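seq as requested:
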Amino acid sequence: MAGMRGMGLPALGAAAPEDVEVSTPHQVFTMGLDDVEAGGGLERARPGGWRFLLESGGEVIASAETAETPEGARPPSFNEGPYVGATATAVKAARALPQLATAGFELRLLRIPALYLMALWLHAPNTDLLIPLAPSPIGSEGKVVPPPVFFRELADHARDRGASGPGQGAGQPRPNR
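struct tokens:
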């Protein structure tokens, strides 16, 4: 994996290929700013691919993500940004939740690019929970937030920042995933 170092992936590049394990598969869902501004909730999230955590020596070092396109799945993209560690931390916290043991939650990721937000999404047939990943524009990083509260805070943030129109963000540089 030495070639990864030159691609800005030092941890992945330093890992021996035989030591890298793929773990924690989760489907990625995306929402646009227009979905948030329209008062939409999780029902407006669209599936877009799959993301996996990559581990070496028992530590999460990167993520790999595939995207679904009309032509099929794209080759994976790799990332070592702050959302990688935040995902690992949130997954550990989620696995300790008592309601997780009985409800049979499915692990998902919610991404709202225009607001620089990613959240772990725990989905079950009768309930959903969200855990914003750090850095989050609405705070509550690593804490379980019910969807109505999450989307109310997100809509307030979008209004406060003056973000409008699909694809426009909150005036901040886009953080790494």
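The two ends are 20 Å apart (CA to CA).
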